[in-house]
Structure formats: structure tokens, C-alpha cells
Amino acid sequence: MTTFxxxxxxxxxxxxxxxxxxxxxxxSIAVExxxxxxxxxxxxxxxVDGHNRYRICVxxxxxxxxxxxxxxxxxxxxxxxxxxxxxxRNLSDQHRKWCLGKLYESRKxxxxxxEGNQHTRAKLEIPQNEGFPKxxxxxxATCDQVAAEHGTSRATIERSAVFTRxxxxxxxxxxxxxxxxxxxxNKFTDGSLKxxxxxxxxxxTAAKSIVDNxxxxxxxxVSDAIRSALEDWANQQQTEDEPIMDTIDExxxxxxxxxxxxxxxxxxxxxxxxxxxxxDGRVGYxxxxxxxxxxxxxxxxxxxxxxxxxxxxxxxxxGCEYCYxxxxxxxxxxxxxxxxxxxxxxxxxxxAAPANTPNTKNFGQKDKNVFVCSMADLFGxxxxxxxxxxxxxxxxxxxxxxxxxxxxxxxRLKEVNDLYGGFPDHVWVGTSIDxxxxxxxxxxxxxxxxxxxxxxSVEPLITQIRFEDLTGFNWVVIGGQSAQxxxxxxxxxxxxxxxxxxxxxxxxxxxxxxxxxMPIMTREVPW
Length: 527
Description:
Blueprint: H1 8-11, H2 19-32, E1 38-41, E2 46-49, H3 51-60, E3 66-69, H4 74-86, H5 93-109, H6 141-149, H7 154-174, H8 176-184, H9 190-202, H10 204-213, H11 219-239, E4 272-277, E5 283-288, E6 297-298, E7 308-310, E8 313-314, H12 324-329, E9 345-346, H13 353-356, H14 365-368, E10 369-372, H15 385-397, E11 402-407, H16 410-420, E12 427-432, H17 439-446, E13 454-458, E14 475-478, H18 494-506, E15 510-513
Parallel strand pairs: 1-3, 5-9, 7-10, 10-11, 11-12, 12-13, 13-14, 14-15
Antiparallel strand pairs: 1-2, 4-5, 6-7, 8-9
Helix pairs in contact: 2-3, 4-5, 5-7, 6-7, 7-8, 7-9, 9-10, 9-11, 16-17
């Protein structure tokens, strides 16, 4: 008989069956024997289907048979497991929805299956004195394929993917038992799950209390309990003074002045810090401040193109010598604000900032602009994809703002673009270029990224950089170097700026030169 191992990853990949289902299966095997063979991954010699049957057979001493299947990798194994689950006739609606969303996300992320790679986007021509044209929605071959295979619609698959991400985020907080409860019962609606995640970011204790008692509640009472807890939290915020932390948790871009800490910070709750492994294998953190109400921070005059900054993720591993953010995070004055220093850190409660910050209807475009992660690189190779997805979902859920994202890893930005089928119109994405080595990758990646505004930050321009093709961008921001971190201020030579300007204008880009240390004062904006 073929020998095999049990993989905890694969055994826990799918939601556990209910107690009633396991009891029924045990009774059937005791009477009729194990009628279906266990399926083993041929190359990995790992059990992939029949974990419950295997354990019952061992317990009862019932013989079983094995069927081997060949798979190229573990992701293919997981997709096959999902398809097998979807073939079960007794699958609950919630369980089926989760499997559909998981299958869709898995196929999108597999190498060679990224949506958008099948077609190259045509060059985007920007008419003079007109707004940016809205790109046509990108077709999702993967979404349509999954929908056709399982007899449903594209919209259902897209909703299932959102549902799956929400369930998985909550499972990461409350454990696999929560997922089992969620998918094997009808305790939660899509809306109550999203509200529970919101409540966890605002009041983790109240959220945990509801989860602990959900087994004795029905769907309506669960929804009512979450809504009531959110209302209680909101009422509490209205009756209390705003925490002083709201003015200092996210220092503005290029801010030369550090805000002193309050003399009596006792009103600020101590953070709960959890150490986690990052995507690159290094150490990062999740930092939660219970009861903390997060809002955007208003920028200073250094940021002419955005009124707000928002830092749901802080810290970075780039190690740039000119980094103002590292200087702020590691300063003695900001130690209590950044207890993890400049190590990558996720702040879940800050996901509520877009909803918490007032947005009036008469705001101009700049007043709606939010610079995302001015104290981090959200798309750095070390950032867990789950952190990125939670920030993306928060931006998608709050379209009243325009979010400007910037990264030195355009290839990661391309991966997220493919994962979501493009970026919403209110999410503008850009890449930062500070040396010639970054140019080629940026030019290639951005031709295949779908966003209403794609921008390029050439800041600080501290060496001559030559571009060949900027048709993948709509907007170029150029800046010199400010005096910080022991480095002197630096004004780039006119010919360096002139080259970037000339290529940008040739390829239809708006150009914005920052006021400080710049020889050319073109200040065009994409609105």
C-alpha cells in the first residue's frame, strides 16, 4: 500500500465538517466500510482528500483504498480540493460561496493565469485641456470561466470573492472554528460579516464578545448585536474628546517639524502588539489600540497635491538614506507613537479612517486626495498580501476619497492590479524612481496596469535619470532633496529636470514640479 503523510496546511485548508456530518460519516463507515478511496498527491505523497474518512478508519480499524493523482504544485492541489467541495450536494450556501470565491482568487493568482496578461493595453492618449478618459472595464476571463463551470453569474463570483476575503480575515482573528461556524450555519449575512470586521477594528473586546456568544444567537440577533455595538462605540466617541493621537499618528510627508508628545498621554490606550512573519520571512508587527478612533491626518504645505495622509501600514525595508519617514519613526519624540520603530507594522483600527473623516460635498479635488502610506511602502515585497487586501477593500468601500498610492515595487503593484482586475477610478497608483536601475521595470509594468491615473514620482532627483517611454503614465511629479537625516538640500541641475520634462510632455503626461529646490515650476495636476 502507498504510504502518505498528513499535511496540516491541506487538512486545514477547507472548512471543517459539522459534528452531525462527522457522526453520520462514522456511522456509515462502521456499517458499510470505506466505500470511496482516499486521494493522495502522487508527487508529494500527501493526503489531499478523505482526512475525516482516514481518521475514522484508523479509529475503527476499517480498511481503506488509495487513489493517486498527479498535480504540478500545491496550489493545483488546493484548486482540485475546492472543485471537489463544490461538487458536494449537501454544501451550505455560505460554504459554497466561500469555495467559489477561494477558487476564483486562487486561479487569478496562479503563475501564468493573471488576468490582463492576455492583452496589451493600447497607448492612452490624453487630449489637451480635457479630463482623463475613463478606461473601459477589463474583461475577466478567469471570473467568467469559474462562473461558467459552476452555472452562475460573473457578479456572483465577484461577490463571493469579497465574501471569502472577509471570512478569511475574520478567521485570521478568531481561528478556524469561526470559519466552520460561519460556513456551516446561517448565523452571519454578508453585511454582518463586514460590520463585524469593522467592529473589531474599533472595539475588539465587543467584537470578541459577540463571537463568543454567537452559538446561542440567530441571524437577526447577531446582526442586531453588531449594529448595536457599533452604535455604542460611535456614541462613546461623540461624548469623549478626540484622542490627541489623532493629530500625531501619521506625520505628514516631508514634515521637517516633529510634533511633541503630550505631557500626559494616559488617555491614549497602550497598543497591543503581535509579532508576525512578513512575506519576505522577516519579522513585522500588528499593532492595535483598543477604542482608538482613527481619522486622516492633514498634510502640510510640502504636499501640494493632497490634503490628507493615511497610514494603515507603517515601516519599510528599503533603507533609503534620504528617508524622512524613518527619521520621524525612530526619533525619541515619536517613540510612543511608533513603538515598533520603522519595522513594517499593520494598524487595523486605521482602516476605519476613511469612514471616520468628514467629507463635505463642496470639497475640491485636492481636498479629497489622500496620500496612502506616507510612512511605508504598501506594496513592498515584505508586506503580507492580506494587509494589502484589507487596505484595498477599505479604499473600495469608501469612494468619496481619491487615494494616491506610491511604491518602489511596481511588479507587486502589477500583481495587485491583476488580483483585482484593475484599480477603481478613485485609486491612483504610482511608482517612485530615484535611480536609473528602476526605470525599465517601471516603464514595463505600468503599461499593463489599469487605473484612471498612473503617476511617476521622480523624487528626490539626486542623480541623472533618463527615460525612454512614459506612455504608461498620466502624471509625473519631480522634486529635489530637502535637508534631513544629516543630508544637505539638493537642487537638481536644469538639464536633469529638463530631460524628464521633455519626455513626459512628448508622451502626454502632466508635469508637477514641487516648489522646494526645483529649477522649473510647471505645476500641472491630473484634475
